[in-house]
Design goal:
Length: 384
Amino acid sequence: MAGKDEATWRVGVLFSRSGVSGITETEHFLGTALAIEEINTAGGVLGRPIEPICYDPAGDNDAYRSYARRMLAEDGAEVIFGCSLSASRKSVLSTVERHNGLLWYPSIYEGFEYSENIIYTGATLNQNVFALADYLLQEHGPRIFLIGSDYIYPRESNRVMRDLVETKGGTIVGELYAPLDADDAGHVDMIAEIRHAAPDAVFSTVVGRGAERLYRAYAASGIDRRRCPIASLTLAEGQIRAIGPDRCSSHVLAASYFAALVGEENRRFVTAFQTRFGSERPTSMWSETAYAQVHLFARALAEAGTLDAERLGAAALRQRLAAPEGELAFDGETRHVWLTPGIGVARADGQFDVVWRARRPVRPDPYLAWSRFETNCLDEGMAA
């Protein structure tokens, strides 16, 4: 094991900047890098800079696990910022627990998980899918088609969306899955089935490069996106830039962050991000969550004075932050974050019109233990 440099706080950064999820995880990486640079420029934490150790697993789950073990067992890191897809988080979980590390996980996911060695800073399903179901039924109609990449997050998210739609009187008119990173033909076949079913809207949990192929094929199909949009939890500004904004207008995103949000913290974040990485690169839910969690980590570290997982984790759960998306605070019972759900409709310029936002942050409910499926979540919010 490498000797620990007591002059720095050594942390691991484990995001794929290439491979199937390269676009969104690069945004995670850049948000993380910006926050670390800001903290170090301001003097570090307790007078010591944060020293990142970075690896690119290129979307390979075995590489995530191997690099996580190297960081914790050989590189002297006790904290990892990393993983995006649930498959990668699941692949490192036992390694992080065995080495008593602390993984800060910034992605939305399907919930139904708890670990003393993970801090979850992305949205759970009650913080995005619930309001989205009401929005689709109210604004587009009762006939919904479900599609997804074939692994745990899409399967679980679509199951919950089905329960919500059927509880509220809607109908699921089709459900299809394609292999993660399926080719163009696989997504063209999906769209043929959608056209045949003629739904009012599509709920998609297709992710990564597959999503980019899906949206291009949907645009080429000529289906009227204003009448029958694809709604998702993942198609954010950076991926729209890669696909082409003209191919994505009118599609719907449920998220707690949009680059177009008003507020001084978001203006400062957008300016800092684009100054550092280029004016053509938009901020998104992926970069913002990664950025915010590093600042939460720094506050916790300043209080705990150690990277020990138990003491740092306990301190983390007491932190609050005025983040670009708004006030963040932890729910100590679940180790997840209170977030403010929102719904945006993509514009032709690649940004979103935020058409609805909750009045206040919503408590995370990763096991859906207390969320009521019958509630109209739009009633709990207001037009943005």
